[in-house]
Amino acid sequence: xxxxxxxxxxxxxxxxxxxxxxxxxxxxxxxxxxxxxxxxxxxxxxxxxxxxxxxxxxxxxxxxxxxxxxxxxxxxxxxxxxxxxxxxxxxxxxxxxxxxxxxxxxxxxxxxxxxxxxxxxxxxxxxxxxxxxxxxxxxxxxxxxxxxxxxxxxxxxxxxxxxxxxxxxxxxxxxxxxxxxxxxxxxxxxxxxxxxxxxxxxx
Length: 203
Fold this sequence. Notes:
Number of helices: 6
Largest sheet: 5 strands, mixed
Shape: globular
């Protein structure tokens, strides 16, 4: 008879992801940027750090500003965290946010239709990536099934590049999200210049 349960290599109850923490030399600029871009408000904002949330949690992103931090070298081409992600509940809210940020002069460096999400990638003042997405299925179980079973996703998990301005024009022309998504996947909104997926180097 076995003396122990080998299934205990994994927790019986898995903890839910709660927050991400960054160190920064630009604390106030980072707080302002995350407030503007994804509506994160500080629960606490002091001299040495800030803790921000945009839902019921006490914080979702923490920003620590200890002394003597060094700037990274070649951040966009080194291993580590590429981006954090935030999701809108529907296409119209997602696209309206793109327009709001565009009008404030905040533009994505990368725009990808991954199949299960349609995603815009921005950079915060420290060069960290921030994805703002909408689920293409409107249902996590369906988008998860697409990732799990789809040959389409297995063959190309990165997805198709698109130009969000063309999506704005398509919606203004009366096209539904489903049709816009289909056309994006077919490459009809592909930009003239295809960017790299690396984070643009700011240092």
